[in-house]
Amino acid sequence: MTGLDLLVLGGGTAGLVSAVVAGGLGARVALVERDRTGGECLWTGCVPSKALIEAADLAQRMRRADRVGLTPVEPVVDLADVMAHVRAAQRTIAPHDAPERIRAAGAQVISDEVTFVGPRRVRLASDGRELTARCVLVAVGSEPAVPPVPGLADAGPLTSDTVWGLTTLPRRLLVLGGGPVGCELGQAFARLGSEVTLVERSPRLLAREDPEVGDLIAARLRDEGVDVRTGTELREITGQGPWRARVDGARPGRIDVDRVLVAGGRRPRTAGLGLRDAGVTLTDRGAIRVDTRMRTSAPGVYAAGDVTGVLPFTQVAAHQAATATLNALFLLPRHVRYLSMPYVVFTDPEVARVGLRASQARSRWGGRAVLTRLDLAEVDRAVAAGRTDGWASLVADPAGRLVGATVVAPSAGEVIGELAALIARRGRLTELYRTVHPYPTYALAAVDAVGEHLQRRLLTPTTRRLTRPLLGALRAAARTS
Predict the structure, then answer these.
(1) 454: burial class by Cβ within 10 Å (0-12, 13-18, 19+)?
(2) Residue 165: CB atoms within 10 Å
(3) From CA 307, how far away is CA 152, in angstroms rounded?
(4) DSSP 8-state secondary structure symbol assigned to residue 170
């Protein structure tokens, strides 16, 4: 097949966005997917995990109903029914990502596997046909990384790809990895009734966040019965099921478990694609190296999504793909800007972040960086809901422009979007404060944090010395009028 404007490899979020955008613009485009369209987000990531978390959250609220004056109830959990809810959510969303929608947008859909046989030329595995295109977008995603721990393979470890096949709740579950996936699924399974042990090599959970974020999430998990072991590494698994895991580090010992869930990260799915034949350079971790225009080292070849190894989140993949598609088709100089890209860890409380952390701002501007924060204990909505663990912290440059934010709160993911928009338009803290927000909401945590900062700056002895003469003059004028 020749004469294509764009060939898209992979039918996950990035590939779908690219094919629909290109087809809608009238380009000749074909998408090749080896499995089913929708990718990790629909089938093994965002959608199933959030459906599972919703069920787990309700179970936990039933247990802790006394927090709002109700009688606690221990829920009866049947994992098969919970997984049926997960699959129902997937079925409802699946048509949005189906081949029919892609074709309706004007793109061809080919179910096959490919390898590069030259620049912008691939061969189909099924019949050996070759496809060539003016531009190629590689969006083949990622896969779970399973560490080479002795005995782990014999234990049949679950991953974020395979855990959705469970129908019986593991009585004792070992979770390897304290990043977003490990924390989300570890908390969810604990709330559904598993005895969860979470092992993380780093000194704290969510290592890419500020230390206090990981500390708070660890404290919450421990409060809910999770055995959190940071600074600890799995060394060996023995037995025939149940299994015995030997760990070393801060809390060495042996742990008896029924199942193991590996949540220690993902690796780009670049093996076997023949990328070197296309002239595409990879990083040391096997990701495709791209610039901010999403170009690879090979002319006419672009990449987007998890395969780039940059911020593996659905919204990032979608934005990368849209940028890459327009650049590829029309030779535009559009760039992806990561500073204003938010993401959320869907633990309870949620952790939402965008832009710079406080430590990064201090490194860049020293004492001129503007840092402000408000704890949820001072937010009326949080007090009314009995959910005061968390805070909103904002980071601004010396000119007062917002450059970063972290929100740790229920519904933090709903709050962070406004802050990301403010960063994208290089807005100032005062702009956020001047916007009227509904009361009472968690969003007011960020607004009130700005208010406290402004009060510290404005309500000073110097300010009073300047305003007293003006007030005096106005009083005198009022008496004589």
Answers:
(1) middle
(2) 8
(3) 26
(4) -
Residues 375, 409: contact at Cβ < 8 Å? no
Tokens of 373: 């924060």
Residue type, 431: E
Helix (H) or strand (E) holding 174: strand 172-176
Buried b (16+ CB within 10 A) or exposed e, 185-210: bbbbbbbbbbbbbbbbbeebbbeebb
Residue 457 parent element (H or E): helix 444-458
Judge contact between 74 and 62, C-beta under 8 A: yes
Euclidean distance between CA atoms 393 and 397, whole angstroms? 14
Q: Which two tokens stand for residue 40?
A: 């990790």
Q: What is the dihedral of CA 423, 428, 432, 433, to 10 degrees?
A: 160
Residue bearing tokens 């996950």:
12
d(CA 302, CA 211): 36
The residue among 326, 285, 327, 331 whose CA lies nearest residue 308 is: 285
pLDDT tens digits for range 143-197: 999 999 999 999 999 999 999 999 999 999 999 999 999 999 999 999 999 999 9
What is the number of residues in the chain? Answer: 481
Alpha carbons 140 and 436: distance in angstroms, whole number? 43
Place of tokens 């959190």: 228
Helix residue ranges per DSSP H, 146-277: 180-192, 211-223
* Percentages (nearest 5) of helix, strand, coil residues in the chain: 40, 25, 35
pTM: predicted TM-score of the whole model, two decimal places: 0.94
